[in-house]
Amino acid sequence: MSARLSAGLNTGLNTRLSTGKRSQKLVVIGGPTAAGKSGLALELAGRLNSVIVSADSRQVYRGFDIGTAKPTWEERQRIPHCLIDLCEPTQVLTLGDFQQRAQALITQIHAGSGLQLNASAATECSSCPLLVGGTGLYLKSVVRGMKIPRVPPQIELRSQLARLGQRHNYAQLLTVDPIAAAKIHAHDTVRTLRALEVFYVTGEPISSQQGEAPPDYPILQIGLDCLVTDAPSDRLTERIEQRTQQMISLGFVEEVRGLRDRYGDDLPLLNTLGYAEIRQYLAGSIDLESAIALTTLHTRQFAKRQRTWFRAIPEIEWFDADTPELVDQVWSRVQKFLEIDEP
Fold first, then answer.
1. DSSP classification of residue 310
2. Fewer CB within 10 Å of terminal CB in the chain, N or C?
3. What is the pTM of this model?
């Protein structure tokens, strides 16, 4: 399946993107998992004749298809999708890598440059792309123009630091970069290691290499969630349960088995949401029913964290995922943003 999905999806015929009234703007669609972001984006992209730029930290990996709700082959033939299937699961795509690719791509689209998109994309597209996904840091890196140190993970260095223990490492961080340490919890191992890693590789504190440089083009941020006060979390839970069952029916177990057999049981990506639970089932630790229940539970917990992240962003304009008028409501707002005259 992954071979079919990856072939030619980010390469293919040159597609000329038109410039004009809608040039140099960006529409962002974010929100918790299972809220319907991809479906909404497909509808809007169809009306705009536009391009979808994926902002999903796992859809960049080839073969991780069903468990990441990656757009289908048919959907990607109908609407050009970018930043999907960028690398092998054994490789690492950092936040900085994603940001660099996304910024370059958006610049190309705004400029109306010829892009390598999709073998079926032979028609001209709007120069206003849609940046779509639930990975908050991916979205923020573009929308806020985060300054990210270009230091790839240093596996050996991290291993050495990890053996020293968090208490020692945090004390060291307080010495070499007190500004960064003030923003990192004393028990936050991941961020502590990253800050020390950047310092030892570059010789400069990570705090001096961070900050923001927002893009100069207008951005409309759309948030999608279950908003009605009668137990919105329950309605999102229903969506998550439906998605999990659909993943199983589409062959999710077979996908995980194939990835495990090809890359080995210790592949880090197999420890991520959904894949970890199915891997437990394949190992005989739990039955399939338990794997499905755990996937649903962990996805609900993940969605809660996503909600907390997105709700802290005041620029997001929220829409109810369950309203029958959703597409028309969002389309009306996009038309206003892009100054599209009513037909």
1. H
2. C
3. 0.84
CA distance 313 to 222: 11
Per DSSP, helices labelled H in 81-154 are 95-111, 136-143
Residue 140 one-letter amino acid: K
> Each residue of 2-16: pLDDT tens digit?
333 333 333 322 333
For the stretch 233-261, pLDDT in tens is 678 899 999 999 999 999 999 999 999 99
Q: In this predicted structure, which of 106-115, 234-243, 292-301, 315-324 has the lowest mean pLDDT? A: 106-115
Strand, coil or helix: what is 115? strand
Please tell me whether residue 108 adopts helix, strand or coil conformation.
helix
| DSSP per residue, 250-290 | TTHHHHHHHHHHHH-TT-GGGGSTTHHHHHHHHTTSS-HHH
2-148+212-227+309-338 matches 232-308 in fold: no
Domain locations along the chain: 2-148+212-227+309-338, 155-209, 232-308
Please tell me the CATH code under which domain 232-308 is placed. 1.10.287.890
The bridge status of strand 317-320 relative to strand 81-82 is unpaired
**Six-digit token pair at 129?**
């792309």
- 80-89 confidence digits (pLDDT tens): 999 999 999 9
**What fold characterizes domain 155-209?**
Histone, subunit A (1.10.20)
pLDDT of residue 227: 74
The continuous run of DSSP H or E covering 342 comes out as none
Query: Distance between CA 116 and CA 11 in Å, rounded?
Result: 5
C-alpha to C-alpha distance for 133 and 130, rounded to whole angstroms: 10
Residue 211: half-sphere exposure toward Cβ, Cα within 13 Å = 4
For residue 64, pLDDT over 80 is answered with yes
The encoded tokens of residue 29 equal 């669609």
Cβ proximity of 147 and 213 under 8 Å: yes
Which tokens belong to 295?
Answer: 């996937």
Q: Are 85 and 62 in contact (CB under 8 A)?
A: yes
Q: How far is it, in rounded angstroms, from Cα 162 to Cα 63?
A: 31
